[in-house]
Write a structure and sequence with these properties.
By secondary structure, the protein is an alpha/beta fold. It is 39% helix and 15% strand. It has a seven-stranded mixed β-sheet with strand order 1-7-6-5-4-2-3, with helices on both faces. A four-stranded antiparallel β-sheet has the order 8-9-11-10, with helices on one face. The structure holds pyridoxal-5'-phosphate.
């Protein structure tokens, strides 16, 4: 089985669009080949379709080759393109592990691809036996979110390796929260598993959700397919430039992560003191999933005070939970003061 065999037949035979900037890549003094406006305002020209400058910086930081990187208009675009390239509508399926990130199922539905669900154990760990049983010859992609959203836990490295050995398809590890985690990234396994696809993002640790930049890391073969399927100029030039500025500032990124992690610990200690808190689930991410005695009540009371958290109570095995992102020190202090007041009122009752 090769990567080519896994592709949808129409993608296997696809002749990609050839833009002016893919046909002539060199330097020149006069460009009259793309029907652009000649009047320079900083963005009158089409952007680099393959974002080489940005990819070279990311490659250097992550210890991969630029040819192993795909940049999407958010992770959403990256994951959508993966499904579009590998899954034949009404025939193939993808596998997800609830409770997990809701976007995988939406993307499968948009593409007319069956979204098969294989739930985690009740303690949010992987159930390998159930997982391997859920796969069939039409399963093309397995989405594993680690650290997982909304639960916060990471999955065992060895179990995922076992899965990659057993499964003849693409394994996506969504590492949106990996920079907050003490556990290693799967990036170091890319050269060993050509069907491994690691998805990271500018939206969390790099403080750039508004730019819309998703980072896909995989084998050059899979990246080449993604490049052929994507819209030619999917990352605009302002985003390419600002993304480069953001990721080059390692000092800021690392100090922001350190602040979040210190605040996360502080929040844990304080939450632990509240009687209304039943359980705080282990988290390797920039949020806590917290079980309350009555999550809806706490959600409404926080909302009354202008503090919005995510109510995850209707997710599998997440009854009475709120997902709370770590904010600035001031925001967290405000949250804690409000929760303490809610706690006292509840006690009086
Ligand atoms: C936040 C998040 C992302 C980021 O998505 P973008 O489209 O890059 O903003 C991806 N996956 C998970 C699980 C997330 O929680």
């Amino acid at each position: 089985m090769t990567i080519r065999d896994l592709l949808r037949p129409n993608i296997r035979n696809l002749v990609p669009y050839s833009s002016a900037r893919t046909e002539y890549k060199g330097k020149a003094s006069i460009f009259l080949d793309a029907n652009e406006s000649p009047f320079d305002n900083g963005y009158n020209r089409y952007p680099d379709p393959l974002q080489w400058e940005l990819k070279q910086e990311i490659a250097a930081q992550k210890g991969v080759k630029p040819e192993q990187i795909f940049l999407g208009n958010g992770s959403d675009e990256t994951l959508d393109l993966l499904i579009r390239a590998f899954c034949e509508p009404n025939k193939d399926n993808v596998l997800i592990l609830p409770p997990t990130y809701g976007m995988y199922e939406v993307l499968a539905n948009i593409n007319g691809v069956e979204c098969r669900k294989c739930s985690l154990n009740e303690d949010f760990s992987l159930n390998m036996k159930r997982l391997l049983n859920a796969i069939d010859q039409n399963t093309k992609i397995i989405f594993i979110c680690s650290p997982n959203n909304p639960t916060g836990n990471s999955f065992e490295f060895t179990k995922i390796q076992e899965l990659m050995k057993a499964f003849n398809g693409v394994v996506v590890i969504d590492e949106a929260y990996i920079d907050f985690s003490p556990k290693p990234s799967f990036i170091k396994k890319l050269n060993e598993y050509p069907y491994l696809f690691v998805s990271q993002t500018f939206s969390k640790s790099i403080s750039a959700a508004g730019l819309r930049l998703g980072i896909g890391l995989s084998s050059p073969e899979i990246i080449q397919i993604m490049n052929a399927v994507k819209p030619p100029y999917n990352i605009n030039s302002l985003t390419q430039g600002e993304g480069l500025n953001c990721i080059k500032d390692r000092t800021k990124i690392e100090s922001d992560i350190a602040t979040i992690l210190a605040e996360k610990q502080h929040l844990f200690n304080a939450l632990n003191e509240l009687e209304i808190v039943v359980q705080i689930f282990p988290s390797d991410a920039n949020f806590w999933l917290v079980r309350f005695e009555n999550a809806d009540l706490v959600y409404e009371a926080l909302k009354q005070k202008g503090i919005i958290v995510r109510n995850r109570s209707n997710q599998l095995y997440c009854e009475n939970t709120l997902r709370i992102s770590i904010g600035t020190p001031d925001e967290n202090q405000n949250l804690l003061r409000t929760l303490e007041a809610i706690n006292q009122k509840t006690e009086i009752k």
